[in-house]
Amino acid sequence: MYETSVGSLVFKNPVLTASGTFGMGESFADFYDYSLLGGVVLKTLTPQPREGNPPPRLYETPAGLLNSIGLENEGFDAFERRIKENNPFVSWGTHVIVSIAGDDEGDFALLSQRASRIREIAALELNLSCPNVHAGGMTFDARSEHVYRIVASVRERVEIPVFVKLSPQHDMVANAREAERAGAHAVTISNTFLGMAIDSQKRSFVFAKKFAGFSGPAVKPLALANVYRVAQAVSIPVVASGGIASGEDAAEFLLAGARLLEIGTMAFVKPRLVVEVVEFLEKYSQGGRIIPLQ
Ligand code: SIN
């Protein structure tokens, strides 16, 4: 087993699902046993339910995917009720990481406190970087002082590990340093890249919000460079997310300095990809550690 850790949390292997692409866990159970993974990251929850953005919400490109989901989710109250009535996490046999977002620092503080009271939640991922909610694709981490304030107020309230998911639109090295200074246990590099689709026939934007988040194999070289830069700049673990489509891709991110990996877009094409990556890394590591390149 290629075991790894973040803070005191030990992961049986470095492979996680990426938030958003895994829903609340209902979609992939027919394809593989969740206990084979290091962990799963659920779709971002907000204090109130959100309907998300109007369609269309997805647009494929030759090697990637644009999404404008708009953080559709049931809201934290409904989630908590559902978990109390019938908690599926107990049987999953893997770490469950809850992704949260809100409108301000207070929402992050409140949700993190509530989530940390649910025993089966192993860690939190603060989504400071969804480009599909605010006008112009603006994200919370546009200003480093917001990163610091949000992370610090969450860390005052919770003991479980806190991952901070950043946007590649902003200075990720500066933001990762602020997250570390505020007490984050890990930074997730990164959320989607700001993209756009235009319909030339209709002479209009494809998405109602004009901009969308771009992910998939096309972004891998960009994500690899960002993971390397951030891993060189901070001491906390980097969780890599960006276009992993094979075991070799996953190994490249570990060589670039990542501690954990999140796999998302390509799981839509190949749902068992996560399991294939676990198996590949097992062989590739030959029972030892994969030493990052300098
Ligand atoms: C979305 O729901 O719009 C995507 C999630 C994200 O980019 O954080």
Secondary-structure map:
Blueprint: E1 4-6, E2 9-11, E3 15-17, E4 39-41, E5 58-61, E6 64-67, H1 76-85, E7 95-100, H2 105-116, E8 121-127, H3 144-157, E9 162-166, H4 172-181, E10 186-189, E11 193-196, E12 198-199, E13 204-205, E14 211-215, H5 220-233, E15 238-241, H6 247-255, E16 260-263, H7 265-269, H8 273-285
Parallel strand pairs: 3-16, 4-7, 7-8, 8-9, 9-10, 10-15, 15-16
Antiparallel strand pairs: 1-2, 5-6, 6-14, 11-14, 12-13
This protein binds succinic acid.
The site of succinic acid has 12 residues, from loops.
Q: Unreliable stretches, pLDDT < 50, 5 or more residues?
A: none
**Helical proportion, percent range:** 25-40%
CATH architectural designation: Alpha-Beta Barrel
Sheet with the most strands?
Answer: 8 strands, parallel
CATH superfamily: Aldolase class I
Strand runs, count: 16
Based on the model shown, name its key terms.
TIM Barrel, alpha/beta, 8-stranded parallel β-sheet, 4-stranded antiparallel β-sheet, binds succinic acid, globular, 294 residues
Protein model, in words:
This protein is of the alpha/beta class. The chain has one domain (4-52, 70-192, 216-285): Alpha-Beta Barrel (TIM Barrel). It is built from eight helices and 16 strands. It has helices spanning 76-85, 105-116, 144-157, 172-181, 220-233, 247-255, 265-269, 273-285, and strands at 4-6, 9-11, 15-17, 39-41, 58-61, 64-67, 95-100, 121-127, 162-166, 186-189, 193-196, 198-199, 204-205, 211-215, 238-241, 260-263. The strands form four sheets. An eight-stranded parallel beta sheet has the order 3-16-15-10-9-8-7-4. Strand 15, helix 6 and strand 16 form a beta-alpha-beta unit. Helix 2 (105-116) runs parallel beside helix 3, helix 3 packs parallel to helix 4 and helix 6 (247-255) crosses helix 8. The two termini are 25 Å apart. The mean pLDDT is 96. The structure holds succinic acid (SIN). Succinic acid binds next to loops.
